[in-house]
Amino acid sequence: MSVIATTIDRVLERVNAIGTLKAGFSRPSYSPEEGAAHEVIADEARHLGLTPCRDAAGNLAATLRGADPERTPLVIGSHLDTVHAGGAYDGTAGVAAGVALLAALREGGGIPPADIMLMVTRAEESVWFPVSYIGSRAALGRLTRADLDVVRADTGRPLADHMRDAGLDPEAAVQAPAPRPARFLEMHIEQGPVLHSADEPFALVTGVRGGLRYRTARIDGVWAHSGGAPREGRADAVVAFAELVRGMNAAWDAVLAQGHDLAVTFGRVDAAGPLHAMAKVAGTLGFCLDMRSDDPAVLERADAMLAEVVARIECETPGIKVDLGSRSRSTPVPLPAGMADGLDRAARRLGHAPRRMLSGGGHDAAAFAAAGWDSAMMFIRNWNGSHCPEEGMDQADLARAVEVVHAAVTEGDL
Amino acid sequence: MSVIATTIDRVLERVNAIGTLKAGFSRPSYSPEEGAAHEVIADEARHLGLTPCRDAAGNLAATLRGADPERTPLVIGSHLDTVHAGGAYDGTAGVAAGVALLAALREGGGIPPADIMLMVTRAEESVWFPVSYIGSRAALGRLTRADLDVVRADTGRPLADHMRDAGLDPEAAVQAPAPRPARFLEMHIEQGPVLHSADEPFALVTGVRGGLRYRTARIDGVWAHSGGAPREGRADAVVAFAELVRGMNAAWDAVLAQGHDLAVTFGRVDAAGPLHAMAKVAGTLGFCLDMRSDDPAVLERADAMLAEVVARIECETPGIKVDLGSRSRSTPVPLPAGMADGLDRAARRLGHAPRRMLSGGGHDAAAFAAAGWDSAMMFIRNWNGSHCPEEGMDQADLARAVEVVHAAVTEGDL
């Protein structure tokens, strides 16, 4: 089924010609680069004889009509924006997979049982706008007016302005009604090393972890001279941060030891401002904290452990004050097993035995599942992590997964 | 002796009108602001009937002739450059003290036994050029041609260029011969809280700690997705850094427990580049490490402990690599007791009982002592640390210390 492989290859190459950095890719949410990437997919859809259209928020859709207009449509898609210096596959692989599925269905010549819609969402990478799933929530009639005011990290300008710059209508995006629930399928690189380590090409996702996040946390201490300040009496923000990391790693160990799911990450640490110097005890330090779990109760417990660690550090070191800043959260979203079971049947007919696993990262599929859609995700083996220029994926693995979806669609499993 | 107090007040106010930030002061080494501050002191010297002159490196000197030209001159001074957003007193207080001493001697009308030279050095704050005591080493005929090539942290341009911009002659500064050794006295705020805590106005310094410094150290790990990377298998640069801080704090405790002198500071931590994000396990982190002691053997031992901690972390976490970068060092410099004993006698006659203490920070006096001069330092009580806008000093404390020096000079103790 080489049209799948050649389509994947072509779409990845065309999209990743846009926003290419010296290392990696940068297509910010609602940037001209994201818009150009959407235009590539619109062009791909036209070449397949489909009519691409976009909604008020700029999500792109193209539908291959099925035999039975009453049968619940299957929407397949992902996003094309990237983090700064991201990789070639996060989001883009899922879009290439959708185009490849349509190409394979076209080449097969038959008519699928239900409508198959390729959907390319906007603004999935929340590193740009600090809210989740802007595009998919807009497609679901769930974007709020408050969302329009959030500002993009690099420009400081609100979402509404960036939408208008892209020729879109933010007001209409907010007023869009919820569509009738359909089925959503997203293919995405695994953002960890599990499949690569196990030598498995793809997996079925059981749910998307939720998160508790502190994006603007800070430790304040007391500036002092590195040579003149005795050990006792120091209120060193760097030392307090090291204690915090250690305390939260211990908390993480305790949660894992009880068999619960949790990930704790301090991804950004900033004691490198104009006031920081080699010869100074740091009086302030900024950091981000990201905690994820499949269980909201575990997240609340981790948050309580954080409060305990902070209180202990503040108590043990007079002069240290930890300000966690505002907390944001996303709810864990289990994906219903129905579609995954159908994909599993098709996979086994083709000789695969995909594992079921959690997704650590948030994905558009979570937004669709949260809106009551039947949703599924497939993870594609990947190495070197994600959100980095080194994202590694064998396109043959993605093609194998698309073959499974094609079989599931054409043989009645989906 | 109000001329001391009024002189201190006036000099501090005039110099600190230059390079004032919203919070603190910024007079970089060999900047126009440092030059303007020197011009203020030249003007002060002229008002005292002295003839200011400057050497090839821009150090300013003004001499009050003594009765006996054969008697070893006493040089009193400090520097006027500041760190970025520094305070009103680091360096400047010592210069104000020198002007105040000359003013008091002038007002007294007598002729001091030996020449008294006010010296204002250049470029003492090594945060700008990463070498120590540029000005005082030039005054001592100890500046090297290699020093001329070091670049200023903010401009990236070499010392020689900045000297030429200031109308100076770098080549002549390097070729200057060593002067005949004299006596050097520096008054400086204490850069720690010891005198403030003990409620003592000033102290006599017994020596200047040396240091081992890593200015461009780095930990490399493996970038990963915060939700997708399982705990085992992570090579998180932030977590490794926290372990390093903890390990070096334990080493510090061990050294202190054996009664040795040591200070360990991680003053700058940078995991806040464009690649760092809340949702990413950090793949790299930069930091500075500053270790100080009065004993070179203790510094070497701390360095060996650092190597052990680094090796342990690298061994425990595959994927973590610590690159300490280049090491710089300064030798601990004991100050001979002779001048301090004289100052102590004068202080006791005036009702003071100054403690003797180490200096944690490097000072010009160390350069003079290292060149074989008889040198002394007085520390003035200070709070809120140093190298920060909040440096706190009671000008009356500085005036008391100058009164002691005046008494020591006029009554034969110095």
Q: Determine the number of helices of chain A (DSSP H or I, runs of at least 4 residues).
A: 12
Major beta sheet summary of chain A? 9 strands, mixed
What structural class do you assign from the helix and strand content of chain A?
Answer: alpha+beta
User: What sort of overall outline of chain A do the alpha carbons produce when their principal axes are compared?
Assistant: elongated
Low-pLDDT stretches of chain A are: none
- Protein chains sharing the most extensive interface: A-B, 72 and 72 residues
| Relative strand content of chain A | 15-25%
β-strand number of chain A:
16
Oligomer kind: homodimer
Counting structural domains of chain A, the number is 2
- Return the average pLDDT of chain A rounded to an integer: 94
Tell me what the CATH architecture of the largest domain in chain A is.
3-Layer(aba) Sandwich
Order of helices and strands of chain A: HHEEEHEHHHEHEEEHEEEHEEEHEHEH
Provide the CATH topology of the largest domain in chain A: Aminopeptidase
What is the CATH class of the largest domain in chain A?
Alpha Beta
Terminal CA distance of chain A reads 19 Å
What name goes with the CATH superfamily of the largest domain in chain A? Answer: Zn peptidases
Give the helix level of chain A as a range of percent. Answer: 25-40%
* Radius of gyration of chain A, whole Å: 23 Å
Binding site for Zn(2+) 2 (chains A, B): 90, 125, 387
Protein name (chains A, B): N-carbamoyl-L-amino-acid hydrolase
Binding site for Zn(2+) 1 (chains A, B): 79, 90, 188
Family (chains A, B): Belongs to the peptidase M20 family.
